[in-house]
TrEMBL record:
Organism, as annotated: Candidatus Marsarchaeota G1 archaeon OSP_D
Protein name: Amidohydrolase 3 domain-containing protein
GO molecular function, a single term: hydrolase activity, acting on carbon-nitrogen (but not peptide) bonds, in cyclic amidines
Amidohydrolase domain sequence ranges: 11-126
UniProt-listed InterPro entries: Amidohydro_3, Metal-dep_hydrolase_composite, Metal_Hydrolase, Metallo-hydrolase_Enzymes
Gene3D superfamilies membership: Metal-dependent hydrolases, Urease, subunit C, domain 1
Listed Pfam families: Amidohydro_3
């Protein structure tokens, strides 16, 4: 929201984000959530945590290898810690809420804007995405 508020204000326009990289480097538990969906603050919002992580990577200059893992953990593990959610994670006895992403690593998932192949809630698949990419012919 902070990067969209003030668009009609006279210059200098005050917008931006906090020092995410410095907070992470200092050991602060930084997280983000997704609540603005197709509204005045985020007209393109769609609850996609990877899309928001991708945007934050640019805005916060989070481009180091260790940042990619933090970007994915911010709306998941780090947010669960802030909310004090019990049973969150992929350990025995946890709720088994997770997404299966088709990407070789976190960098590729962020780069491609990978969508979940499966969404699992309490150990049951609640969404399955079947997409097929077909090349019909080669360019000369």
């Amino acid at each position: 929201t902070s990067i969209t508020v003030g668009a009609s204000d006279p210059p200098p326009i005050g917008r931006g984000i906090t020092r995410v990289k410095e907070l992470l480097d200092s050991g602060v538990n930084v997280c983000f959530g997704l609540d603005n969906v197709v509204d005045p603050y985020n007209p393109f919002g769609d609850f996609d945590p990877l899309k928001n992580a991708w945007l934050l990577s640019y805005l916060g200059q989070l481009n180091r290898e260790k940042d990619f893992e933090a970007l994915v953990k911010m709306p998941t593990y780090f947010a669960a810690r802030v909310l004090r959610l019990n049973g969150y994670g992929l350990d025995v006895g946890c709720n088994a809420d997770f997404n299966v992403i088709d990407a070789k690593d976190l960098r590729e998932a962020l780069r491609k804007g990978a969508k979940p192949k499966f969404v699992v809630k309490q150990g049951k698949i609640i969404l399955e995405r079947n997409t097929e990419l077909i090349w019909h012919r080669s360019l000369p």
